[in-house]
Automatic annotation (TrEMBL):
SUPFAM superfamilies xrefs: Calcium-dependent phosphotriesterase
Organism: Mycolicibacterium phocaicum
Annotated residues for binding of substrate: N85
PANTHER family, per database record: BLR2277 PROTEIN (PTHR47572:SF5), LIPOPROTEIN-RELATED (PTHR47572)
Active site: residue positions: D179 (proton donor/acceptor)
A Pfam family reported for this protein in Swiss-Prot or TrEMBL: SGL
Cofactor dependency: Zn(2+)
Protein name: Gluconolaconase
Length: 265
C-alpha cells in the first residue's frame, strides 16, 4: 500500500508498508516475503545478532523483532514524541531515529539516539521535519533529509553518539521536499523528492549529478543493493496527503542500474 524505509540486508531488499502493518523482504527475482507484522511500520535497522529494529509512524514506538517475525520488545517513546519515522542503526547497536512533535498545528523535529535497551536521548533539535537518515562512507557523518527545509544536513558524530552542529550538505531548492535517502561508496546521496516526482543523486555542496523522474506518484525512497551494490531500488507510492490518511494508496518498487555501488555498511 505504501512502501517506505528500504534497506538492502542479507542479500534481500527490505521495506516497510505502514498502512498494511507489514515489513517485507524481496529477492532479486521478485519473490516477496512478509518478514514481520508491525502496525505502522516505518524505519528499519538491525542489531548485530540479527534482531530487526522497526520504528513506527503516527505512533512513537520502536520494536525489536526476531528472525521468526516475533516481536521481542516494544519501547514506548510517547513521552518524547508524537511519532517516529526513519531509523538507522550503527554497528554498535545504537540507533538514530526521527522524533516528531505537534506544536500549534505544525511538526517540530528532533533526532533521538536509542540504545539497544530502548533508552533515548535527544541529540539534535529544531529541525524542519527530519526524514531519511544515512551515514557517509567515513562512518562518522550522519546525513539527514530535512523535508520542510528542502535540504540535506550533515552531522558529525562523537564517540558517545552525540551529534555536532549541522552543516548544509545540499540545498535542493524550495520546490523539492526530500524524503528517504541512501548513500553510495563515493559519498553521493540518492534522495527521493516525493512531491516533485524525482530521485536525485547529489554530492556535498549541492551539485546534482544524476536525476531520475517518474511518470506519476510520490518518489519516496531509494536503496542501493543487489549482488554488486549497483542496483538502485526506487520506492514509489501513488497517493495524496488526504488519501494516505484514509489508507488510500498503492505502492510499487522500480529498479535501475547505476555506476557507483552502495557504501559499505
Amino acid at each position: 500500500m505504501y512502501g517506505e524505509g528500504p534497506r538492502w540486508h542479507d542479500g534481500r531488499l527490505w521495506f516497510s508498508d505502514g498502512p498494511a502493518g507489514r515489513v517485507y523482504s524481496v529477492g532479486e527475482t521478485g519473490d516477496l516475503t512478509v518478514a514481520a507484522e508491525v502496525p505502522r511500520a516505518s524505519g528499519l535497522g538491525w542489531l548485530a545478532d540479527g534482531t530487526l529494529v522497526v520504528s513506527t509512524l503516527f505512533e512513537a514506538t520502536i520494536q525489536h523483532v526476531d528472525g521468526q517475525g516475533n516481536t521481542t520488545a516494544t519501547f514506548d517513546l510517547s513521552g518524547l514524541a508524537w511519532s517516529t519515522n526513519d531509523l538507522v542503526v550503527t554497528p554498535d547497536g545504537r540507533g538514530y531515529v526521527d522524533l516528531y512533535k505537534q506544536t500549534n498545528n505544525a511538526l517540530v523535529g528532533e533526532i533521538g539516539l536509542v540504545d539497544p535497551t530502548g533508552t533515548v536521548r535527544i541529540v539534535a533539535t529544531g529541525l524542519a521535519v527530519p526524514n531519511g537518515l544515512g551515514f557517509l562512507p567515513d562512518g562518522s557523518t550522519l546525513v539527514v533529509s530535512e523535508t520542510n527545509g528542502s535540504r540535506l544536513l550533515a552531522f558529525s558524530t562523537e564517540p558517545d553518539g552525540s551529534l555536532g552542529a549541522p552543516t548544509v550538505f545540499a540545498d535542493l531548492g524550495p520546490g523539492r521536499h526530500p524524503d528517504g535517502l541512501c548513500i553510495d561508496a563515493e559519498g553521493g546521496v540518492w534522495v527521493g523528492c516525493y512531491d516533485s516526482g524525482e530521485f536525485l543523486r547529489v554530492v556535498a555542496g549541492g551539485t546534482v549529478t544524476d536525476r531520475i523522474t517518474i511518470d506519476g506518484g510520490w518518489a519516496v525512497a531509494p536503496a542501493l543493493g543487489g549482488a554488486d551494490g549497483r542496483t538502485l531500488y526506487l520506492v514509489v507510492d501513488d497517493t495524496t496527503h488526504e488519501g494516505l490518511m484514509r489508507g488510500e494508496s498503492a505502492g510499487r518498487i522500480m529498479q535501475t542500474r547505476v555506476d557507483v555501488p552502495a557504501a559499505p555498511t
